[in-house]
Amino acid sequence: MHPGKAGGYGCVRCWPADADAAWEARQALRREAEMADEPHFHVMVLACGACGQRFLSVFIETVDWGNGDDPQHWSLLPLTAHEAAKLRGGLSAPALEALGRHRRSLRRDHPAGGAARAFWSTGVATAPHD
Asked: What is the pTM of this model?
């Protein structure tokens, strides 16, 4: 954790107060570890180059077989050093969902037929996905 930030995580570059700005900042995070890389489920650990904060990134997609407009969802959760180390051994979907269950996380939803939106939530989602 990084003292001085709201919630004790990240820095102004990687974890700004505005959800849209935080989604943009996510693009600058570097990939540190891949945990799952499937077509509709992607889990990785990302890190901030400025402060070293690590984040769990989860992408899920549900195939829309009829219209081809697949709903997509992203979760980004700041990790403690202990959690980041634990993830290197790999975790099940329920264990991933248990991480930071009550911690603020960034979510981005892109529903079928709708506009994408970023918002603050808690924890991460790993289901449903194809």
From this structure: 0.85
Q: Which residue has the tokens 């070293």?
A: 52
Q: Which helix (H) or strand (E) holds 70?
A: none
Cβ atoms within 10 Å, residue 24: 12
Q: 102: which residues sit within 8 A by CB, 6+ positions away?
A: 122, 123
Q: In sequence order, what are the residues at sequence separation of 6 or more whose Cβ sits closer than 8 angstroms to the Cβ of residue 8?
A: 1, 2
Taking the C-alpha atoms of residue 76 and residue 98, their distance in angstroms, rounded to an integer, is: 14
Length of the chain: 130
Cβ atoms within 10 Å, residue 52: 13
Count CA within 13 A, CB hemisphere, residue 18.
5
User: CA distances (Å), 117 to each of 65, 76, 89, in order?
Assistant: 23, 14, 32
Sheet holding 117-122, edge to edge: 30-38, 41-47, 54-61, 72-78, 104-110, 117-122
| CA 127 – CA 130 distance, rounded (Å) | 9
pLDDT in tens, 61-71: 887 666 667 88
